[in-house]
Amino acid sequence: MCLPTVFSVFHRTVWRKIHWRAKEFCFFDDYNWDITMWATVYPSFGRPVYTLRGPRTSAVHFGKCGLHQGQGQSNACIDNGSVNIQVDDVDKVANIRSEWGVHVYHDQAGYKAGFKGWGGWGDHRDHQLCLSFAQMYHSYSTSLAVLS
Known about the structure:
Its main location: Golgi. By secondary structure, the protein is mainly alpha-helical. The protein is built from five helices and no strands.
């Protein structure tokens, strides 16, 4: 189970808990922010975390180049479109219906202790940008020096 990759809603208490883990989040080596949340932030909550998700695809990964992935100091990563991911027609339109039921899955296995991520988030520029965003959207004053 993972968070939807299009949007998520958190109340202020959860938002603050997420921000308290900004350093762990920003330095975890995985380009999927939802996996990073499950591996670094949610375990610190000390109790189960629940999410809602629809039965169909909500987003499709459409390239191999992250913001800084595959770049040297000045080279750009080139994605020649060779991946060509197939998207079903039903997934090209809004696909959430009010008549769908809600299912609760108990005791979902999570990421084991020591999981280091799938990679793709190792560039120091990504880390610093992430920490800057964490500072920007903090609801109280904290310096980046404290986070780094």
